Amino acid sequence: MPYERSYEIEQRLKAVLRCIATGSYSTPQIAEELGVSVPTVSRNVLALRERGHAIRSEKRGDGWRYVLEGTTGAEKDTPQPRKGAHA
User: Fold this and answer.
1) Where is this region: Disordered (predicted)?
2) Residues 79, 50, 85, CA angle at the centre, nearest 5°?
């Protein structure tokens, strides 16, 4: 399939976004969950930010977590990107 790699990347971006939407995953935890490297997760988060998703890092008691602004955890299955956002 000629577009298989692109499809895999899109699916991983969606999975990363789902993990971030829960507010419970750090970069290493997302990497472990998805079976990819920490740098891959970092690149995916950057790509999602470039697409307009309001992703920030937040210090929690046990470490850092990604947070998707405008959501309160897992209550949104498919977070929508901010309009006109540039990170």
Assistant:
1) 67-87
2) 70
Q: What is the DSSP letter of 18?
A: H
- Per the structure, the complete domain to which residue 27 belongs is given by 4-68
> What is the rounded average pLDDT of the residues 11-36?
94
CATH number at residue 30: 1.10.10.10
Residue 54 to residue 68: CA distance in whole angstroms = 6
Q: Is 80 exposed, middle or buried (0-12, 13-18, 19+ CB in 10 A)?
A: exposed
CB 70 within 8 A of CB 45: no
CA–CA–CA angle 12, 78, 76 (5° rounding): 130
pLDDT at 29 over 60: yes
